[in-house]
């Protein structure tokens, strides 16, 4: 008797490449492209892509986000400043400064400082206070401190209490304080704002 062959059952839907599916869903959720255009671009049925975007079905990849909620959470993660380490292993804060007393040719140690951020209403809000170490160096916005999360795309003001410093060394200065206003556009970078100071003048710049 002739052998009977059973017809294999195939899914009516084609298995789509997981990587392409992830790319298509991410583009739709980011608003870069519509579901219809993404369907044409990646050659994925519109109904299938719509289900993936709405989280009705998983993308099919064990690694990475698989639903709408997870993709949105992944896209909205707040950027954290990169950790920059020194030779000794200590982590450098996102914002650092170095104050040099050019009249004495020495670091300006123990100088009080205050960092403020300009809010949406145009008012300055104090974020953190600190002081320079004996070497004239200081840092702000440690990712593990109470100000974590306040280092973002904004305008900041760094105030140096120069009058107190000059009084402590028996000198009278012309400027009671120095305020340096600067803009942060990429909070993942490290910013160094030094101050070169004398009783009758000062200068600043963005260092490294």
TrEMBL record:
Catalytic activities: 5-hydroxyisourate + H2O = 5-hydroxy-2-oxo-4-ureido-2,5-dihydro-1H-imidazole-5-carboxylate + H(+)
Quaternary data: Homotetramer.
Residue ranges of domain Transthyretin/hydroxyisourate hydrolase in the record: 90-207
E.C. number: 3.5.2.17
UniProt-recorded name of the protein: hydroxyisourate hydrolase
Function: Catalyzes the hydrolysis of 5-hydroxyisourate (HIU) to 2-oxo-4-hydroxy-4-carboxy-5-ureidoimidazoline (OHCU).
Keyword Hydrolase in record: yes
Keywords annotated in UniProt: Hydrolase, Purine metabolism
Entry similarity comment: Belongs to the transthyretin family. 5-hydroxyisourate hydrolase subfamily.
CDD domains tied to this protein: TLP_HIUase
Hydrolase found in the keyword field: yes
Domain of life: Eukaryota
PROSITE patterns (UniProt xref): TRANSTHYRETIN_2
Coiled coil (UniProt feature): none
Pfam family, one: HTH_psq
Any one GO biological process: purine nucleobase metabolic process
């Amino acid at each position: 008797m002739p052998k009977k062959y059973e017809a294999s059952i195939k899914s009516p839907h084609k298995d789509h490449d997981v990587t392409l599916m992830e790319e298509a869903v991410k583009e739709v959720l980011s608003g870069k492209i519509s579901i219809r255009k993404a369907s044409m671009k990646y050659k994925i049925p519109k109904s299938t892509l719509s289900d993936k975007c709405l989280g009705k079905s998983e993308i099919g990849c064990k690694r990475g986000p698989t639903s709408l909620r997870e993709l949105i959470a992944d896209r909205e993660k707040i950027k954290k400043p990169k950790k920059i380490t020194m030779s000794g292993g200590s982590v450098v804060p996102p914002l650092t400064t170095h104050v040099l007393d050019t009249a004495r040719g020495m670091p300006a140690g123990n100088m009080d400082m205050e960092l403020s951020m300009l809010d949406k209403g145009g008012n300055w809000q104090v974020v953190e206070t600190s002081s320079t170490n004996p070497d004239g160096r200081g840092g702000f916005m440690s990712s593990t401190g109470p100000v974590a999360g306040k280092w973002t795309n904004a305008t900041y003001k760094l105030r140096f209490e120069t009058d107190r410093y000059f009084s402590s060394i028996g000198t009278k200065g012309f400027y009671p304080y120095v305020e340096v206003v600067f803009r942060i556009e990429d909070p993942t970078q490290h910013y160094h704002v030094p101050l070169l100071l004398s009783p009758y003048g000062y200068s600043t710049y963005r260092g490294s």
